[in-house]
């Protein structure tokens, strides 16, 4: 299978598919925001504030625009006329998740503990190699990934994704039990040690999800009936 090569690394001799290397803009735009349609806007605003610190810059009858940094918005919650809930959004094609990244392992794990104490827990936990990731479902069943870069350097994690035989063999990585990570940190283990043990499968949870698909949204199914 052809391997994706990012700019500057093609000298490594990896094969590159022309179908996967379209012409790029001369100046590439930066990813700015994700827009989500919803009929539960108040619950969504509350959830995104709790989970990601996003708060409304503007909140009106037809939507809310939320940010947690200097941008005018990072998530747009839209309520267009005629909107209806899907019967099973979690198992259809389309957006799987939007990701947010913490700068340090401690911030990331502390956020997991904070959310768990409010009853918000991940439906999927994966050590991808370049990130350790917790996947949550918002009130409308949209996926939200909360991650930490295991290299602490995007250039290094990008290089690992490109050149690593380990990532080529398994892009998802092992599942982990976040409570085991909490226990390991409490015992004095470093992020590096914990990540190494996670990659070795030492923090494997008791139950493994059948797939990476989001859980079904019973509330949406009830709304349709």
List the helices and strands and how they pair.
Layout: E1 34-37, H1 41-52, E2 55-60, E3 63-67, E4 75-78, E5 97-102, H2 105-117, E6 124-127, E7 131-137, E8 143-149, H3 154-163, H4 165-169, H5 178-186, H6 191-199, H7 218-224
Parallel strand pairs: 1-4, 5-8
Antiparallel strand pairs: 2-3, 3-4, 6-7, 7-8
Characterize the structure shown:
It is a single chain. This protein has a 4-stranded mixed beta sheet, covered by helices on one side. It contains 7 helices and 8 strands; from the N terminus they run βαββββαβββααααα. β3 (63-67) and β4 form a beta hairpin. It has 225 residues and is an alpha/beta fold.
List the keywords:
29% helix, alpha/beta, disordered N terminus, 225 residues, single chain, 19% strand
Mean pLDDT, to the nearest integer, reads: 89
Major sheet description? 4 strands, mixed
- Overall morphology: globular
Given the helix and strand composition, which structural class is it?
A: alpha/beta
How much beta, percentage-wise?
Answer: 15-25%
Unreliable residue runs: 1-5, 8-18
Order of helices and strands: EHEEEEHEEEHHHHH
> What helical percentage do the residues reach?
25-40%
Cα-based radius of gyration, to the nearest Å = 19 Å
Q: What strand line-up does the widest sheet have? A: 1-4-3-2
DSSP, total strands: 8
The number of helical segments is 7
Determine the N-to-C terminus distance: 45 Å
In a nutshell, what does this entry contain?
Helix content is 29%, strand content 19%. The chain is α/β, with parallel strands linked by helices and 225 residues long.
């Amino acid at each position: 299978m052809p391997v994706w090569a990012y700019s500057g690394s093609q000298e490594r001799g990896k094969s590159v598919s022309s179908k996967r290397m379209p012409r790029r803009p001369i100046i590439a735009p930066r990813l700015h925001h994700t827009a989500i349609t919803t009929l539960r806007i108040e619950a969504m605003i509350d959830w995104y504030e709790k989970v990601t610190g996003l708060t409304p810059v503007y909140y009106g009858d037809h939507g809310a625009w939320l940010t947690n940094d200097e941008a005018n918005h990072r998530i747009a919650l839209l309520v267009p006329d005629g909107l209806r809930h899907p019967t099973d959004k979690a198992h259809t094609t389309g957006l799987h998740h939007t990701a947010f990244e913490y700068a340090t392992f401690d911030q990331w794990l502390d956020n997991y503990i904070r959310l768990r104490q409010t009853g918000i827990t991940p439906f999927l936990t994966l050590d991808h190699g370049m990130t350790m990731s917790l996947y949550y479902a918002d009130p409308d069943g949209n996926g939200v990934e909360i991650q930490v870069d295991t290299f602490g350097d995007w250039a290094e994690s990008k290089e690992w994704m490109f050149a690593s035989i380990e990532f080529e063999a398994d892009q998802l990585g092992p599942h982990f039990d976040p409570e085991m990570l909490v226990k390991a940190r409490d015992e004095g283990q470093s992020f590096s040690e914990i990540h190494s043990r996670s990659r070795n499968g030492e923090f494997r949870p008791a139950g493994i999800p059948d797939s990476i698909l989001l859980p079904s949204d019973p509330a949406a199914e009830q709304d349709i009936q």
